[in-house]
Design a protein that fits this description.
This protein is an alpha+beta fold and 768 residues long. Strand 30 and strand 31 form a beta hairpin. The chain is globular and about 85 Å long. The chain starts with 5 loop residues before the first strand and ends with a strand.
Amino acid sequence: MNQDYIKPDEWSIIEEEFDAGRVKSSESLFSIGNGAMGQRANFEEQYSGPSFQGSYIGGVYYPDKTKVGWWKNGYPEYFAKVLNAPNWIGINVFVNEEPLDLFTCKSVKNFRRELNMKEGTLSRSFEAELPNGIEVEVKALRFVSIVEDELGSIKFEVTPLNQDAEIRFDPYLDGSITNTDANWEERFWETLEVKEDSERGYIVSKTLKTGFHVGTFMQSEILLNNEKVATEATSSVGEDRISFAYKVKTAKQETAAIIKYAGYVSDMNHKKEQLTEAAGNVLDSATSKGFESLKKDQKEAWASIWEMADITISGDVKAQQGIRFNIFQLNQTYLGKDDRLNIGPKGFTGEKYGGSTYWDTEAYCIPFYMATKDQKVARKLLTYRYNHLQKAKENAEKLGFSNGAALYPMVTMNGEESHNEWEITFEEIHRNGSMVFAIYNYVRYTGDFSYIPEKGLEVMIAVARFWHQRSNFSKDKNKYVILGVTGPNEYENNVNNNWYTNYLAKWCIEYCLETINKVKDGHQEDYARVMGLTDLKEGELAKWREVAEEMYFPYSEELGVYLQQDGFLDKEIIPVKDLEKKHRPINQKWSWDRILRSCYIKQADVLQGFYFFEDHFSKEQLEKHFDYYEPLTVHESSLSPCVHSIQAAVLGRMEQAYEFYVRTSRLDLDDYNKEVEEGCHITSMAGTWMSIVEGFGGMRVENDQLSFKPQIPENWNAYSFKVNFRDRIVKVSVSSKGTEFSLEGSESLDILVNNKVLTLVPNEQITA
């Protein structure tokens, strides 16, 4: 844990007392979004202290030219950057012409910031004494609408406390925004038009290279004591900026307020020539509804999300706050409305990592969306990858692969690889296996096999071809090997025979072969179409079988464990517990050379394979591997604690499972890795959900049946969750007294509870 200032609360993230040293961390934690756009929790008014201003639009990106010391064949030409978009939240505030700036105020007291996760709103209040001696009370509330996903709204109130004052509100739009992570310090936007029309402001911008056209817009209303007042605005129009100035004479203890409606429209949804018109339509709708009505719609929409997605925990407020924060951020990032979008690792909370899609989506996020939404949402995520299949083949061709072999990108916006660290781009090829595992996992959970003949089989064949070509026969080992890779443990680069990668390759080929026969038997028309498209012949299949059957896996007879890769035992094996605290986190304290030579593991690697393929190994094997690898794992990846929590629960080690759960659920809230100011770890938040549902709840699909093996942490009184399994909603409520199940819908459902069949009847509660 690196910080502990977030107040425990079941439904809110709360910060009390203003501290300039944690502003950037809070900007990440209090971020808001609606799946289509979002922003860090920057102050609306000017702030001259350290800050990281950030607003983002789903799907809009910039191909920032790769910057490396020297070029290598196959390098991606660019790193896809999530674009910091024009700023629409800005409202500069002046009190008797003195700017309101928390960094320069004489004093700030009663500061409170709250992210209300139940209703999807961000609020802030404080009292401040300005340099001119005037004391004011400020209240601000804003949200980005998940009903009208091009719209955001702000209400900002100022009350002079010790004298009458003239309050000036200067709402503005600013198009002169740059990314903090630009490789060449380039500007990514070109402003095409800045326009004023009846106290509405518009900026039309275009991204360089990619040519996305975006319209940023605003309109404001002024209130005195919560009643609208007529004020004459003074406008200012610049090259990249437009602002209005509204002055309100305010008596002591009276409240002046501004309501600002603003947001983005883009040519992803409108004709680029009609962006201003589209923005005007959004403003017409917003102003006709009004702020309070929009806020009510927001509350109701979030209530609908929580009805299905919520996990309740009794007896542990911090644990409850943690899981709801994770679920909230996931829904702010992706709602499944637009199949062109995906789940970026930072969502709308920061720029680090770039791209909108990593293997995290397939490995961690799809289970969450399958279970908490309609299965169509998960199918959209699979279709996103199917739509990028041709690009994946092109990625493989650039590296010398042929015959329709596909290498899915580590990082992408449009299917093209856009990650420029060689040990990731060229070597972390295990991501290919996650594409196929996600298809398998989807079919296993939803029962929807139709996706495979329609789309999935083409992906599986292309991936199998990659594994066949990426393997080579070793005469020395008399086995097929895979050389020069990086596994999930990125603290090991350019290794030979990473166990996880080799196991995935073998499994992908075998699953593809098995599935080809199923499609041949049951979907002959699709089979003929796919075989024609891929020109797949029996001779090639025979070569695949040979690779899968003869795959090499490093193993220690002495230890009785699979080795992470060849040569792992050449390292000096020192458990993490013996590493002095001053060396942690090692990715910030050690040289890369020292990390690579150490035995320390960034995240689950061998154990990631044991998580995916739990049914391939005995519980005794899991225990032996867990006991060997977990003590060497530093968990400096956000994706690590959740896997270990689930496996500790399988082993009945609930105290350890709980500790890992707390770490994954509060990774950002408590800033375990000292990096939250860069943004939150969105994709790993799905792993937090899995820690409870799959870990403590023991949910699996076994022999085509939903199965549970519930356990409860010692310091919890109870917990509950819902899952949507094949269009039937099962609620699971676990306490120390037992587990209650209920079923929504019209058909009964047989489930397994601790390996015994239990029949659930709609609208009846059954205790197991």
